[in-house]
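User: Just a sanity check before I run the rest of the batch. Below are the structure tokens for the first item. I only need the designed sequence back.
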């Protein structure tokens, strides 16, 4: 038996993944299932969640699809309630749901700024509250922030950058409130640039040039490089880590 690898196993645990209908979130749900967890899949597009559900089922783990808009606290509460009703517990929350935007600040309408903060920051808080109310000691929350919460963007992204910097601050505070007292660790991941529906909106040559010029590794990240970080922070392998933000960005924020 390989004891250190056993620390990464998630057998018998239940993970909630928001934004599991596409991109990175669908990958995280599959990775958590491969590590042994049953997974609750939350997002707005149920047809796309069903695709993720099928992939999770192929690992032999259970999957539960719940339609939810994370910007609504009551819908986050319903996700947590249904997770416990169907799968018995919540050990892991991956706050991954997010929207991107790039509008020059002098032209950005209030509604657009609010929409991004509402999903990326407020939504993560509502989901964390709903899940933490039901979590036992030993649980873990992983917030998917962004390198743009740490360093400047090449595009006008006030709302996105503010939401992700806010999520890093939220991570620090929830960690200090919940880790010692309730045994719930709270950490964040700051991804660099990965292929997804969100980054598909950026012209490819522009994106590759930017990544080549600003990151040490000079390339986009690959899904499994983030999956490993999510499983690490979700699992007992990171039991002495809380309140931190792990940059998975090819060295971009280290410049
Ligand atoms: P994506 O493919 O566009 O996925 C975004 C996910 O968020 C979708 O599943 C979407 O599902 C969900 N979502 C959006 N609004 C929602 C809402 N109101 N309620 C519930 N779910 C909602 O983009 P992605 O790149 O995988 O992004 C995933 C996360 O990684 C985001 O937080 C993003 O900011 C972060 N990130 C991505 C990169 C990158 O390079 N790709 C880099 C840094 C950080 P529905 O539309 O079905 O609701």
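Assistant: Here's the designed sequence for the first item:
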């Amino acid at each position: 038996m390989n004891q250190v690898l056993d620390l990464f196993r998630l057998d018998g645990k239940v993970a909630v993944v928001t934004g599991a209908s596409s991109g990175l979130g669908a990958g995280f749900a599959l990775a958590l299932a491969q590590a042994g967890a049953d997974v609750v899949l939350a997002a707005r597009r149920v047809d796309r969640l069903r695709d993720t559900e099928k992939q999770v089922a192929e690992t032999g783990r259970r999957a539960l699809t719940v339609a939810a808009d994370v910007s609504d606290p009551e819908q986050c509460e319903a996700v947590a309630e249904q997770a416990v009703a169907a799968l018995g517990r919540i050990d892991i929350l991956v706050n991954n749901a997010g929207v991107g935007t790039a509008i020059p600040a002098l032209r950005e309408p209030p509604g657009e700024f609010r929409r991004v903060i509402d999903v990326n920051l407020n939504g993560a808080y509502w989901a964390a509250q709903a899940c933490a109310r039901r979590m036992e000691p030993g649980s873990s929350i992983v917030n998917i922030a962004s390198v743009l919460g740490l360093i400047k963007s090449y595009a006008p992204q006030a709302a996105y950058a503010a939401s992700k910097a806010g999520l890093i601050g939220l991570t620090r505070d929830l960690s200090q409130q919940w880790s010692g007292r309730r045994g719930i660790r709270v950490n964040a991941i700051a991804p660099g640039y990965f292929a997804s529906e969100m980054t598909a909106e950026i012209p490819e040559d522009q994106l590759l040039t930017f990544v080549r010029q600003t990151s040490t590794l000079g390339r986009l990240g690959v899904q499994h490089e983030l999956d490993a970080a999510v499983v690490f922070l979700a699992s007992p392998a990171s039991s002495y880590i809380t309140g931190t933000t792990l940059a998975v960005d090819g060295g971009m924020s280290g410049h």
